[in-house]
Every structure is written in C-alpha cells, then in structure tokens.
Amino acid sequence: MRAPLVAFACVFVLQAEVSRAQTSLPQNDPPFTGKIAETYDASQPSYPPPLRAKAGSPNVLIILLDDVGFGMCSAFGGPVPTPHLEKLAENGLSYTRFHTTALCSPTRAALLAGRNHHSVATGVIIEMGTGYPGYTGVIPKSTALVSQMLRDNGYATSMFGKWHNTPEQDISPAGPFDRWPTGLGFDYFYGFNQGETHQYYPMLYRNTVPVPQPKSPEEGYHFTEDMTDEAIAWVRNTRAADRDKPWFCYFSTGAVHAPHHTPPDWQAKFRGAFDHGWDKQRELTHAQQLATGVIPAGAKLTPRPEGLPAWDDVPEEAKPVYLRLMENYAGFMAHTDHHIGRLIDSLDASGELDNTLVFYIVGDNGASPEGGLQGTFSELASLLGIDLGLESTINRLDEIGGPTSEPHVPVGWAWAMDAPFAWTKQVASHFGGTRNPLVVHWPKGIRARDELRTQFHHVIDVVPTILEACGLEEPTEVNGIQQKPIEGVSMLYSFDDAEADDQRLTQYFEMKCNRAIYHDGWVACSRFGVPWDRGPRSDDFVNAPWELYHIDEDFSQANDLAEANPTKVAELKQKFSEEARKYNVFPLDPRFTERFDPKLRLGADPPTSWTYYGNDVWLPEPVGPQLFPRPHMVTAKVVVPDDGAEGVIACAGSFSIGWSLFVQDGKPRFRYTVFDMAGIDANIDSTRELPAGESTVGYRFTPDGSETGGGRLELLVNGEPAGEGKINRSLFRHGLEPFEVGRDSITAIAPAYRDRGDFEFTGEIEEIRFEIN
C-alpha cells in the first residue's frame, strides 16, 4: 500500500506546484524527473525545460503617446490625420470613455501596475515626490508590474521610449537598478528615463548604460524614428531566436510631449490648416465628433475657460507665431502616427499582427498647457519660470521644430485639442485632463470590427485585461513579497458586446489637489487653480467649489447640477474621501515648485560638497552637484602637458541652458547660457594662461542676493584671481542633458567649441571638488 500512497503524494505535490506557478512568481525550478545511477549509461537525464507561455498566447503591444488631447487625432474627430490609428480602429474597437490620471508618471505607473497611481506611490511626477506613501515616486515591490507577470510566465519583454518611473535619485551609474525598466520585468530597454527629451539630441540608455545616438540631426536623426527602428529589430530578433515565444512590448513615445520637434516636411503639411484659430477649431472638431458618432448626439461643446483669450482677441503680431507653433505640433503628431504605422506594418508583414493584442492609448493625459498663454520657443524656459516673450519666438520663427528650438504651443491650442471637454493636462477634475482615446486591436481575439465602446474605464483596467486575455491569474506573491490586489477591472467583457453593462462603477481622480469622483454615472469634481500658472499656490483648495455632472446624460461635463442637487454632491464628496483613504491619496498637497526640493525625498539636508576623480564623469544633473544660485567654489587639480591642454573641465546642461568651465587657447573660460537671452548669457575669459604641469583651475561664485540668482563669478588659476564677470541670471536646474567632467557631450553649451565634438579635456583631471560656501 505504501508505493501507491507515495505516487499519489508526488502527483499532489506536482499539481500544487503547477497551480502555485500561476499565483506565485517567479515560478519554481522544475523538479528532476529522470533517474540517477552510479554511471551515466544506467541513468536517465531530465534537462530542465524552458519556461513556456500557454500555447496560442497572444503577443501584447501597448502603444502610449504623450500629451495628446481627446480631440486631436482624426480617428476621434480631430484635425490631425492619423491614418494608422484609423486603420487599427477600423479593424478593432474604439473606447470613448477611457481615462488616465492627468499627468505622465502617475498614468504610466498605474498603467503597468493595474493599480491606482497613489497605490503605486506615484501621486505626482517622480521629481516632485515627497515622504508620504502615495507620493514617494518609488513603486512598491508589493505592486509588481505586468512586465514581471508576463516575463515570469514565459514572455519576452521589452520597453522603448519614455520611462519616467525611476526615482530621480536612482538615475545614476550607482543605481540601484531595481526600479529601472530592466529591474521591473523588462528584458530590454532602449529610451530615456526622465520626463522628456530633446528629440534630435536625446539622453539615451540601452538597458542601464547611457549610449550616444546613432547619427546626427543633419543625417536625419529623430528619436521617434530611432525607437521605432529598435522596436522592429527587437521583435524580429526575438522571433528569429524563438519561433513560438510570445512577447510583450511597451512602446512609449516621447511624442507629442514638448519640446515639439518636427521634421520640416511634416510641419509643412499643416501650413495654413489652423488659420481659423482655436475657438473655431473646437467647433469644427465638435461637429466632426458628432457626425462620426465619437460623441453621442446632444453632447455639448464646453465653453472657453476664464482667463484664456478668444482667438479674435489675440494681437495680430502674435497670430503668425501661434499658428506656426500649432502647425509644428500637428506635424509632430502626424509624424508620430507614421512611425507607429511602420511598427504595425512590420507585424502585419511578418504574420504577427493577428495574434497581437494591441492597446493604442492616445495620450497619458490631455494636451499640455505648459507652454503658457503665449506659447514659447523653449518649453524648458517655461517650466523653469522664465518668460522668453513673444519677441524671441517672432525672431526665430523658421527655427521652430528644428534642433535649435524647444517649442511648445499656447494654452489655447492645447484647450482646442481637448475638445469637446474643458481644461487640459494636470486638471484631474475634468475630462480635458483625464479622458484619452483608446483603440484595441486583436483580430484573433475580437470578433467585432470598427465599433465604438462606451463603457467607463480607466488606465488601471489594462493589466487585468491582458491577464484575462492571456489566461493568467493575478499573482499574489512576487519574489517572495505579498502583493496588493490589482485594482483594475478587465475590459474583456466588452470586446464582443457593445451593450454590456459597465463593470467599473467607481473611480477617483486626484492630481495636485484637482479632485473628482465617478460613481454610477455621476461625477463630482473640484478644480484648484489653472495649470499654466506656475507661481506659488495657496492652501485654499479645501474651499474650492465642487461641481456635479450626470455624465450618463452629459458626455462632456457641460451642465453643472451642483446647485440644484447639493445632496448628491455631499454623497459623492463622502465617496471621494472613502476612496482617497483607501488608496493613499491623503494628504492633499498644493505645493508645486517647492516639491523639487531634494530634501523632501532624501529626508535630510542635501550634500554641500562633491568630489570626483578622472576625466570621465557622467551623471544626470539632479544626481550631480547642485550649485547655482548658491555661493560655491569649484577647484580642479589638473596635469597639463608641456604643449598645453584644452577642453571641458566640467559642465552641466545643454546648448539652450547650462554652464561650462573649459580651457581654450591656453586660458580657462566660463560660459553660462540662459536661452540666448540678450544681456543674460555670460562669457568670462581668464587673464592668465593655465601653465604646464600640475595646476589648479576653477572658479568662485558669489550671489548678489537678487531674485534672478545673479552674482559675480571669479576664475581662479593656482588659487589666484584670473578674471571675473557678472552672471545676471542662474537657475537650480539646467535642462535635460547631464553633468559631466572632462567633456561636454550631446550638445555644446559654449558656441566657442560648438564645432569641436565633445571637446574632451586633453590634460589629466586628477580631482575636481565642488563646495557650497
């Protein structure tokens, strides 16, 4: 009797193991099922079989665009032709009540985790993280991403483009790398790690290593094209290596987030297309949306917000600038859809497309108002609180969209691209910030074609949809860590049933104290401030009024019922508080620029001195020395050859905003550039040469106490004064490019060496020390 019992026990254990593999990841090593004797010829091998996904499992492709409003693309009634999005919609499903969080990092974390953005500690962008559970920017290990779930169930996984979910302090050569894409379930990563990048000069990583772009803008380089080439190659190589292994690809463009970089031929396609202005464009889009059924009959066009000028009131000298900025923005969107089409066409040509579950999410939030009321030649200036003025854009109109620009549209065009809804990105209280189009395409898994779906859904619903489509259970344990339950609901029920009842009945929204709660066909919401006002915010969000909309009957939030139905408002406000407590939304925090203080993330005062060695230091600027506008001193110990040396000692930033200490023609020099502003950029030359042999070279900066961060900068050679000059304006951040010692890569900060490549220092930098005084 014993042998059968043993056999039964073994079978039971194996069955339990198979079941556990679905809910506990990674899966255990397979048991050895062969036979071991004293010699191999009497033994029976059992080589560990590779981890395999279920037969017939679909590939999964998530395409996520950046800063696209509901009313921008032609597939949803907008003015910008997007034929590849349209083609997917014609062979798939278009969701017209799909929602995001109103901001980038939070949407991305929620999308990949299947939990609300505060549940994954991303209540705001990572750079503004604070020490509260819903806001650290550190995705908990108890909320594994779908990339980990699929990889540990036999999928190849990859990520291309914009990440923006690694804690800022971890974006460095020291890591840790466990919250980079490759530490969160992606086998392969090619893209950028922060919130935006220059599309002609991106700050690129391959896995965890910074890499140069493969060619120059003059040779036709653009990041969207580059990331598409990389994604196509990855899919082809994956299939070449394993003909049956399904793959998951997260294709997250930097487009169409500013800076809006558009090749000239794409920008030219829209010349004159928007001459009627933003008010008329909203009317045209609204009419097209009604005609095509994207929005239901009777859905109203919401009015222009107070403080946003009518197009007819725009000064005549400003209109050509505003139009060129919009033409450029539209071209950027069309260019992006073109390259996504290349990816889709490659899947079609290889026979992969039919069994690829595609989610084409048209924006991680609404269109962006961050260009301000006038738009800007450099959105980095706008983000840093600098108004370059209309004149600066007028004088460089033909550069817009090219490598020397960093442009962004005026708020009026962002508002127009969010038609028929009110408001924009950042405003989580209204659908202009949170409602984004979604197209789902999966010929093998969806019978319906070219149909609308109007069920209310949220970005957290994508992960459970993937798991159900792939026949996988939600993991309860990952790497030995108990998991928070997934908070999304699968959309699979709606794939072949347009009339299916909604399965998401409640969803809260919150971003920078803009709040809303959806429950059973109603929305109550409270807006706080305007997103283009970048100054300090008051704490009066507590008293901001609440609005009420019956969105089952009022698609666009056009008819406020709060005054007529205060009982419903009170009921939904209570519901918001319940959801907020459940998902780590509290405490609400109206601060904006104040949150960039690293002390909020470090929990202690930041460093006041930094020392580096050698000629090869490369760090994202927030990880490097934080110098301006504080008083500080820089001292480099260098060895200069007998025939002299030249090149960059240290620098931070880019051609548009940054500082550089360099040696040229035998003399130290210093450059501080602030968007080429007249009377602001500083060039300080030494009166002394840098001698051969061992020397010290550096500078001392003494602030003048002005609000602009200005002061005197004194060059030093061997500790002695060697020339000085005035810095009229300095900033605490210098754009997208890194802090470096020994060279200036990507783009040159100083025009004096703009044609010298990286302008590497030809002497030896033994040590360089940065000290806050």
Your description of this structure?
Pfam families: Sulfatase. The protein has 773 residues and is an alpha+beta fold. The protein has 2 domains: 59-581, Alkaline Phosphatase, subunit A (3-Layer(aba) Sandwich), CATH 3.40.720; 607-772, Jelly Rolls, CATH 2.60.120. The strands form 6 sheets. Strands 8-7-6-5-9-2-10-11-3-12 form a 10-stranded mixed β-sheet, with helices on both faces. Strand 16 and strand 17 form a beta hairpin. Helix 5 (223-241) runs parallel beside helix 8 and helix 7 (278-292) runs parallel beside helix 11 (411-417). The chain starts with a helix and ends with a strand.
Quick recap:
The protein has about 775 residues and is of the alpha+beta class. The protein has 2 domains: about 60-580, 3-Layer(aba) Sandwich (Alkaline Phosphatase, subunit A), CATH 3.40.720; about 605-770, Jelly Rolls. The radius of gyration is 28 Å and the shape is globular.
Describe the secondary structure blueprint for this structure.
Layout: H1 2-23, E1 24-25, E2 59-64, H2 83-90, E3 93-95, E4 98-99, H3 104-113, H4 146-151, E5 156-162, E6 188-192, E7 204-206, E8 209-211, H5 223-241, E9 247-252, H6 264-268, H7 278-292, H8 319-350, E10 356-361, H9 379-383, H10 389-394, H11 411-417, H12 431-434, E11 438-441, E12 451-453, E13 457-458, H13 462-469, E14 477-478, E15 481-482, E16 506-511, E17 514-519, E18 522-526, E19 547-549, H14 566-582, H15 599-602, E20 609-612, E21 617-619, E22 632-640, E23 647-653, E24 657-664, E25 667-674, E26 682-685, E27 693-703, E28 711-717, E29 720-727, E30 739-741, E31 764-772
Parallel strand pairs: 1-14, 2-9, 2-10, 3-12, 4-13, 5-6, 5-9
Antiparallel strand pairs: 3-11, 6-7, 7-8, 10-11, 14-15, 16-17, 17-18, 18-19, 20-31, 21-30, 22-27, 22-31, 23-24, 23-30, 24-25, 25-26, 27-28, 28-29
